Amino acid sequence: MGDNLSVRRFRPADASRVRNLHEAAMRDIGAYLEDVPDDDLENVTETFLERNGEFLVGEVDGQIVAMGGYQLLESDHYITNFLSELPETTIVLTRMRVDPAHQRQGYGSRIYTALEKRARECGYTTIVLDTMASQAAARGLYETNGFEKVCREQLEVSDDSFEMLVYRKQLAE
């Protein structure tokens, strides 16, 4: 599965399609937050690529249908409220999305596998992430790839309430 997906690094010309893919994927599962800015997606090069991170897109027939990235965990990142004593070689996996019309074809797994490979090559040792409890497909992807659920929190964002799950995976002992 996922054989016809071509995975590559984000390019500035991808910006509009990446933002549209994010919105379409999140709306499809009822998780799009209308009034919450997506500053990282407005500035992928600066937020991810210029700061020791990575952002990949997956294309089928020249169209971006999957994406995902990681950033180096900074001490003020909100996820540190839930996890303590993380090594300096920890990254945050984020923005894993697959176009609703292309789901269930292994594309999310292909993006994740490529991101983990790059993270290992860069010497990162731990991956953390959060996802909404309602995102069953995302939870399945992470759990299948060895992530451990470490916390469950109820959050309020822009008058919306949702249950967030935090996961962690050790890449190195």
Entry keywords:
7-stranded mixed β-sheet; 5 helices; 173 residues; alpha+beta
Q: Which secondary-structure class do the elements indicate?
A: alpha+beta
- Compute the separation of the termini in Å: 31 Å
Share in helix: 25-40%
Total count of helical runs of at least 4 residues: 5
Mean pLDDT over all positions: 90
Describe it for me?
With 173 residues, the protein is of the alpha+beta class. The protein is 27% helix and 34% strand. A seven-stranded mixed sheet has the order 1-2-3-4-5-7-6, with helices on both faces. It is globular.
Describe what is shown at a glance:
By secondary structure, the chain is of the alpha+beta class. The chain has 5 helices and 7 strands; from the N terminus they run βαααβββαβαββ.
Mind sketching the topology for me?
Layout: E1 6-9, H1 15-28, H2 39-42, H3 44-47, E2 54-60, E3 63-72, E4 90-98, H4 107-121, E5 126-132, H5 136-144, E6 148-157, E7 160-170
Parallel strand pairs: 4-5
Antiparallel strand pairs: 1-2, 2-3, 3-4, 5-7, 6-7
